[in-house]
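Pair request: fold both.
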Amino acid sequence: MLLRDVVLEILVPQWARGVTQVSVAEVHRTLRQWVMAGKTTSIWNDGTLRRVVQGLLATLRDFGVLQGAVNKRIAPAYLPLPAFCHIAFYLKQKQASGAKLLEMADWKLFFLPREGVERFLVDAHQHGLLEYHAAGSVTRLTFPAPTLEEYADVLARAAN
């Protein structure tokens, strides 16, 4: 959850303001506030906090969220269409409402605003990977398979 929180509560708002440079001091300061607010399982001393921040930033770099060995910056987001579709299917299992699925915070982990999610859904619909229909506040999203495993097969066949 800590990686998720760092992305959603620190990086995404920063990215939304157009700031891509990541300040280690800012991440450290925010995590210290979380520790003081009791959002961690225990109180972390300065050494632990420093190692956690270093580990978080290194992990986010390893996952491609950040770039740079020393000076970190938010990497340009890249999400292949089949990966988006797989994630959409997974999230649809958690959120039955198509309209609410578009608003889920999970999309921000990929730096996708609602409009970006809609563009992906339209693209996936045009490629026959799912059915997406929206009219006003009514949104209908269906998939050509009932389970995640079967949908993964659909995506694999479409890639060939």
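--- second member of the pair ---
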Amino acid sequence: MEFLVNAPALANRTADLVAARLSEAADSRGRATLAVSGGSTPVAFLAQLAERKLPWENVHIFQVDERVAPPGPERNLTGLQEALLDRVAIPTGNVHPMPVDEPDLAAAAAAYGDVVRAVTGTGGQLDVVHLGLGDDGHTASWPPGDPVVDATDDVAVVGPFNGRLRMTLTPPAVNRAGWIVWLISGVTKASALRGLLAGDPALPASRVRRDDVTLLADGAAGFGVTSPD
């Protein structure tokens, strides 16, 4: 676990680590895969990642979660597009948005899982999965008390959660990743972060594995955490 002095430093450090992992994967296999969580916190990290020199023609971008909402500001894809995708030379075919416009969401979720498996060529093992942490202890779109934490399929539809149905990678898909990076910022996340580090089973985020994981937080989120490891 690393504490960074502030949110800009956190974004910069996360971009450095993610870029290094993606470069390593692309060099070794000719392809790198990254799944990005939604929300406002990752926007600065994505903007920093756009500044890194990467073989974008060999990078594939997936979503960890997405709201079932009309195209526009409520969609996680909008922030991803503006902060990263519009600023790098990534082929359109390398961008894999969650298909939340489909009328049959369950079938669309299953199809997205198939796409992940087809593109990775490694049984659905994404190289990098980026996660955030909600002040209620959720990560991805795993609401507290929702059975999605016990899902066996790779992609599920949950909710409504905060007013919207969501499509999300499930714990099996996240925990299969080659590397997981947490990006946690803000004082409102401090209590949830303490619970996560303590392994509180009531927190959905505690369903994420502990090995091959890097947790990065700014000082505000780390308030009250005295012995990070």
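Observation on the second member. Residues 56 and 90 are 5 Å apart (CA to CA).
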